[in-house]
């Protein structure tokens, strides 16, 4: 997606201090334009073992019946007709067909011999010696059912899960381990996917250290350990990570580096002499699509488009503020860049009261759980902009609207990228 043509219909920038819902929509549209203006192919087949987190570029169909043969669903005996049954020597693997009144040992998953009309579970069968004299020589023992056996009982018929040609998954599906397992069972080796957007991280700050207990005035980096996983969860992949101090020239170089579709920067979004994101974007000639968001925390966040079309998401340095800005801008950008719709917000009932905060959304880390009245959202404690304890125990951000909430009110929840 590098060296893009200038987009023909760039997203209308959200106004300075964009409303939270408008910032999400602008970010989603900007992400979508990464696909629409890409020069390189964005559709590619990917082997199953590499497909986790990719998005399907086309529908996927079953090429065969699933399962493709009729099999036993239980350990026991394959039987034909009504009992009692004469039990044949060997097992279902060595028996091609049964006649009415015959049975043979079978294990779960084995193909059924021809003529089998049911499977009798081990625990529901009783063996007795067959009367001597009149047998065929093959029949050794008589099998009785201890309870009635229905026609086709415990048989997994061919095609029960899917018929050949049936659609299994739709274009736009975000591939989880469950999809990969189902694709493997369907006998597929590759899946058609969209190329995963390449993300470059730019972590700023003279005071940031990456190991051990930070000294006085220093902080331990909160972003390096989490952003790659968070980006993956949102549908991108981190291909590059650069650490820079509070330096203008270094910021210009890092924000302008090629080979990526999206840059995610942390820190330096403010207006002090130590904050270089805004001047660097200006020097790069980048267009600001979102210039601050009317939200708390995270309001200094920015979304910009470079002259080559790549997007820059600038997250504030305060760690919780950065995560709130990431789900607001990063989730929608990466959804758009993989042809998915704007991430769906979950509804829950707030357990807490929030006073009005005119003009601003609040993003509050919260835990979701359920009771008979539905999904409940309990806001975390320790939720200041520079704190992370509350987030660690949470599964979403509540998007508290400017008018506030009473306990029991419905509220939109933004899932965390790793839930
Ligand atoms: N006069 C004003 N000051 C501030 C305002 C304002 O409106 N007027 N806004 C505040 C808000 S809100 C935020 S958020 C921050 C934004 O700060 P920056 O994006 O410029 O970030 P820094 O100044 O570089 O750092 C802020 C804070 O975050 C810590 N930080 C930075 N990187 C990391 C990291 N990798 N891991 C952990 N913590 C990090 C940094 O040490 C600072 O404590 O500005 C407010 N100020
Ligand atoms: O984005 Mo700032 O909190 O609002 O820390």
TrEMBL record:
<keyword id="KW-0479">Metal-binding</keyword>
<feature type="region of interest" description="Disordered">
    <location>
        <begin position="1"/>
        <end position="21"/>
    </location>
</feature>
<comment type="pathway">
    <text>Cofactor biosynthesis; molybdopterin biosynthesis.</text>
</comment>
<dbReference type="InterPro" id="IPR005110">
    <property type="entry name" value="MoeA_linker/N"/>
</dbReference>
<dbReference type="InterPro" id="IPR036135">
    <property type="entry name" value="MoeA_linker/N_sf"/>
</dbReference>
<protein>
    <recommendedName>
        <fullName>Molybdopterin molybdenumtransferase</fullName>
        <ecNumber>2.10.1.1</ecNumber>
    </recommendedName>
</protein>
<dbReference type="InterPro" id="IPR005111">
    <property type="entry name" value="MoeA_C_domain_IV"/>
</dbReference>
<dbReference type="InterPro" id="IPR001453">
    <property type="entry name" value="MoaB/Mog_dom"/>
</dbReference>
<comment type="similarity">
    <text>Belongs to the MoeA family.</text>
</comment>
<keyword id="KW-0460">Magnesium</keyword>
<dbReference type="Pfam" id="PF00994">
    <property type="entry name" value="MoCF_biosynth"/>
</dbReference>
<dbReference type="Pfam" id="PF03454">
    <property type="entry name" value="MoeA_C"/>
</dbReference>
<comment type="function">
    <text>Catalyzes the insertion of molybdate into adenylated molybdopterin with the concomitant release of AMP.</text>
</comment>
<dbReference type="Pfam" id="PF03453">
    <property type="entry name" value="MoeA_N"/>
</dbReference>
<dbReference type="InterPro" id="IPR036425">
    <property type="entry name" value="MoaB/Mog-like_dom_sf"/>
</dbReference>
<keyword id="KW-0808">Transferase</keyword>
<feature type="domain" description="MoaB/Mog">
    <location>
        <begin position="200"/>
        <end position="336"/>
    </location>
</feature>
<keyword id="KW-0501">Molybdenum cofactor biosynthesis</keyword>
<dbReference type="InterPro" id="IPR036688">
    <property type="entry name" value="MoeA_C_domain_IV_sf"/>
</dbReference>
<keyword id="KW-0500">Molybdenum</keyword>
<dbReference type="InterPro" id="IPR038987">
    <property type="entry name" value="MoeA-like"/>
</dbReference>
